[in-house]
């Protein structure tokens, strides 16, 4: 039978450092929440919501003359025709383009009167912007590159459906993990890791003032999919290691062993996607950049939570159910990495005894080596 023990490779003790990993996550989440509170204090909104959620008008205009990068002069014009605080952004890479999000002032007794008033105020606003930057021309200055209008009712419905989708998706994931692994600790730990990823993504979206548009729900669901995939791979390895070793070794050791075995696979799975996303952030267009930045943040968070958050939480939830060797045994934790997946799963339990024998042999080699070194001294 093939000996798969790596004699010179010690386990990295992820579980001993679990409080550090969790503290880093809490700190990042608090930083993100700080960004949300700053947004709320400045604009009255927690996030930079697109008009798909808030309702209102979204325009992308192009003038013949460049505008100031800070956009304050344009914002002063837009403010005259806006209800509440408008969001005005002049593109740094093309200062002749400006993105405007606003609720246009409109008065009227009927829907038709309100619509006519809104259209007229938009025309006046464009005329004033054109006069300020090169002279107004109804066809070319400013040129309307994009224009969308969403009612407030539709925006509220989108927010509600987004929340329902996230809750329903999380419930199905928790149910699937519970059925697959047969222990509630696995499913609860996986959901906490997913909530961690969503919290960090939302927090940094607020901190970086990324636009939360209708495509943002696709970002969140994609992040959840990548993260749960990595988490299930790690949990599956923990289960296999526990099945092959029986009750001889503690859950803490099995978690460390499994993480050491799957670390590079988890990193490489996420890294290949993140590299492509970074390339698109650099080379792609301005319109898709918020989507891609949020995706990159979420994938990095998902890889981190699968390795450093999910397994420790599962272990903590399982306290009191560990069997086998002492959890704090340095002897056990000095054992080398053993790839139990290479050991055949025999019905007579040969696989389990082989794993235990490999680790015991490695420990005996370490003990003999120390004795020899002491004699030489």
Word description of this protein:
Helix content is 63%, strand content 10%. The protein is of the alpha+beta class and 377 residues long. The protein folds into 2 domains: 5-41 and 154-317, Multidrug efflux transporter AcrB transmembrane domain (Multidrug efflux transporter AcrB transmembrane fold); 56-149, Alpha-Beta Plaits (2-Layer Sandwich), CATH 3.30.70. Helix 6 (184-207) runs antiparallel to helix 7 (216-245) and helix 7 (216-245) runs antiparallel to helix 8.
Architecture (CATH level 2) name of the largest domain: Up-down Bundle
Identify the overall geometry.
elongated
Let me know the largest β-sheet. 4 strands, antiparallel
Whole-number mean pLDDT:
78
Give the CATH class of the largest domain.
Answer: Mainly Alpha
**How many individual domains?**
2
- Give the low-pLDDT segments: 1-8, 322-355
Counting helices, strands and paired strands, the structural category is: alpha+beta
DSSP E strands, number? 8
Roughly how much helix do the residues carry, as a percent range? Answer: 55-70%
Q: Strands across the major sheet, in which order?
A: 4-5-3-6
CATH topology of the largest domain: Multidrug efflux transporter AcrB transmembrane fold
Spatial separation of the terminal alpha carbons: 37 Å
The total count of helices amounts to 12
What is the CATH superfamily of the largest domain? Multidrug efflux transporter AcrB transmembrane domain
Q: Element order, helices and strands? A: EHEHEHEEHEHHEHHHHHEH
The fraction of residues assigned to DSSP E strands is 5-15%
Query: How much is the radius of gyration in Å?
Result: 28 Å
